[in-house]
Amino acid sequence: MSTQNLETIAAAFLGYIPHMRECGLSLVRGSPEGVELRMPFREDWVGDPIRGVLHTGPITVLVDSASGFAVLAATPVPETIATLDLRMDYLRPALRDKDLHCRAECFRLTSQIAFVRATVWQDDREQPVAISQSAFMRSSTGKPWKPEARA
């Protein structure tokens, strides 16, 4: 998929799904080899106010979104997908006042399943907050994914 097509799909993908819009997800970079999404910090995501640690829920949303988008980026024509399995390993706390970044790559694409690895970090990609491995079901209809207009 070309970079221009990927940016068009990203705008539709990130704008189509309400919780992605609400989270403020944005595409930092993307190619068929992988995507990077950014999620800006929000105070209401702090799960431990004493230590200033984010709740894991928003991190999971970021990973699932980036991983799904990595599948769309890896296919010649975007198609309908569904998360089958998402394993998260939380390696260190995500701290307040810092944006989250997620790099996801679709490392294997079969006719029915896509397999994705993802890494989440804040300031330093070499110090990940979480890692993930997931599987997505691919559409068997052969119809390309097209977002419907939303009001």
Automatic annotation (TrEMBL):
Transmembrane segments: none annotated. InterPro entries: HotDog_dom_sf, PAAI_dom, Thioestr_dom. It comes from the Bacteria. Coiled coil: none annotated. Residues 52-127 form the Thioesterase domain. GO terms for cellular component: cytosol. One of its GO terms (molecular function) is 1,4-dihydroxy-2-naphthoyl-CoA thioesterase activity. Gene3D superfamilies: Hotdog Thioesterase. Keywords: Hydrolase. CDD domains: PaaI_thioesterase. This is Thioesterase domain-containing protein. It comes from Solimonas fluminis.
